[in-house]
Design brief:
The chain has 2 domains: 351 residues, Alkaline Phosphatase, subunit A, CATH 3.40.720.10; 85 residues, Arylsulfatase, C-terminal domain. Helices cover 25% and strands 18% of the residues. The protein contains 11 helices and 16 strands. The strands form 3 sheets. The protein has a 10-stranded mixed sheet, sandwiched between helices.
Length: 501
């Protein structure tokens, strides 16, 4: 090839690359899903053919973390790339009448992608605040469209939460004395109480329409699907209920998998599946207090509400045919990393704030090293007084404090339930998570200078991180106002029972 031909070839190649369409993003976020709940992570009776397809054709993480062992804080971290202590989404979770919510000056993934020309939509469980007149809804946080329930589906009377057939009530207790759970389209209530038996079909139709419309317009898109499944109490419509041997939890998981299958079908129908990064993970570990109805952490210790591995290590799958090579990675990742990764791939501008996430695009596309070497573990009620409960550095994890949780009751492990009170550890408990992911065998430091050095390094990491952490004012500390709970008939009386439409 002559020099002139080479120059022409390089110029044409560069032109093709620079004019390539930016990728689409589909972010799937399960609720209270344990590390051991999926077939592709070792569960013997979970029926999830669509998730199994993603795992077989994509990159499956073994060491992927959320930032909190409960819902709202993890969702805030996912969408902002920042620990919940920076955004004020702590302690605990937001409720229908919560005055606070994810601050509007925080930048979400949707707000990063919109200036880059993306269409944005969310469907499912928001749980980052409702507020006065829907102040904190997704449509005020960068999403063009929203269909879903603005908080957890058990935050209302269970009378409208039914399983198939319709005359059988789902097992479990929900909140009483508040409005029935509403279904919202954008910022309007379209159904109250929501019809859970038809909810996933509504989500599938919404997602399909959004994907096909965006593809027809040749507009890149971002679809965020934070599912209600598999949070307790579980439910499932006719397509999934009673169809597998794992009972109500299995039905709920199967329905989530069905909706994911519908989304994948829409991507294929629109002809964009080869230009779409689909990322699946979950918000926190399983609610073990519900026993077989609460999920499974697999070989990991404890579950929801705790800073042990079972509370905060999650399944995660990245799927992008032709771009992400199928396989398994033992590199570390976190929900914090989604925003900077999507921004990098889309050419979006990062917000001018402290980000805790890192760009994983080289790991995803080129099987490179993850920039993440550390992970910080905050409890459900983080405070400046106690700081971090645990720190992971490479394969090592040090627990400075440990505590059980109500959410992790009923297990034989005495460290998991609420009766395992707060304990400070000096020196910290040290574990090698590659050899002992179950955190069963505390490493002895005696006569092992190399482990002493590791612990000193972790202490240094902890001190440096906490020196830069400025706790935002807690949004939960603003309290609740029952009149803020969404009501489709706001002038009716008596509330909350009159809030139906």
């Amino acid at each position: 090839m002559t020099r002139l031909c080479r120059v022409v070839f390089v110029n044409v190649l560069f032109s093709c690359l620079s004019s390539a369409s930016p990728p689409n993003f589909v972010l799937l976020f399960a609720d209270d899903l344990g590390y051991g709940d999926l077939g592709c992570y070792g569960h013997p009776t979970s029926l999830t053919p669509n998730l199994d397809r993603l795992a077989a054709g994509g990159l499956r993480f073994t060491d992927f973390y959320c930032t909190s062992p409960v819902c709202s804080p993890s969702r805030a971290s996912l969408l902002t790339g920042r620990y919940q202590t920076r955004t004020g989404i702590y302690p605990g979770v937001l409720y229908p009448g919560s005055i606070g919510g994810l601050p509007l000056n925080e930048t979400t993934i949707a707000e990063v992608l919109k200036p880059a020309g993306y269409a944005t939509a969310a469907m499912g469980k928001w749980h980052l605040g409702y507020g006065a007149n829907g102040t904190f809804l997704p449509t005020n946080q960068g999403f063009d469209h929203y269909l879903g329930i603005p908080y957890s589906h058990d935050m209302g009377p269970c009378k409208n939460l039914t399983c198939f057939p319709p005359d059988i009530k789902c097992f479990g207790l929900c909140d009483v004395g508040t409005v029935t759970v509403p279904l919202m389209h954008d910022d309007h209530i379209v159904q109250q109480p929501a019809n859970f038996l038809e909810l996933e079909k509504a989500y599938s139709d919404f997602a399909t329409n959004f994907i096909l419309t965006s593809a027809q317009k040749q507009q890149p898109f971002f679809l965020y699907y934070p599912s209600h499944h598999t949070h307790y109490p579980q439910y499932a419509g006719q397509r999934a209920a009673g169809k597998n041997s794992r009972g109500p939890f299995g039905d709920s998981l199967a329905e989530l998998d069905d909706t994911i299958g519908d989304i994948m079908g829409a991507l294929e129908k629109a002809g964009v599946i080869n230009n779409t990064l689909v990322f699946f993970t979950a918000d926190n570990g399983p609610e073990l207090m519900r026993m077989s109805r609460g999920g499974n952490a697999g070989l990991l210790k404890c579950g929801k509400g705790t800073t042990y591995e079972g509370g905060m290590r999650e399944p995660a799958i990245a799927f992008w045919p032709g771009t992400i090579k199928p396989g398994v990675t033992h590199q570390m990742g976190s929900i914090l990393d989604i925003l900077p990764t999507f921004a990098s791939l889309a050419g979006g501008k990062l917000p001018s704030v402290i980000l805790d996430g890192v760009d994983l695009s080289k790991l995803l596309i080129h099987q490179g090293q993850s920039p993440r070497e550390t992970m910080m573990f905050y409890p459900t009620d983080p405070s400046e007084m106690y700081g971090l409960f645990a720190v992971r550095y490479k394969e090592y994890k040090a627990h400075f404090y440990t505590r059980g949780a109500t959410h992790s009751g009923t297990t034989p492990d005495a460290d998991c339930p609420v009766f395992a009170v707060l304990k400070a550890h000096d020196p910290p408990l040290l574990f090698d998570l590659e050899m002992d992911p179950s955190e069963n065998y505390q490493l002895s430091l005696s006569g092992k200078p190399e482990l002493q050095n590791v612990l000193e390094k972790i202490k240094q990491i902890k001190a440096e991180f906490e020196a830069t952490m400025v706790f935002a004012k807690s949004e939960m500390s603003k309290g609740t106002d029952r009149t803020l709970a969404p009501c489709c008939n706001p002038q009716c009386s008596p509330k909350p029972t009159c809030c139906t439409c």
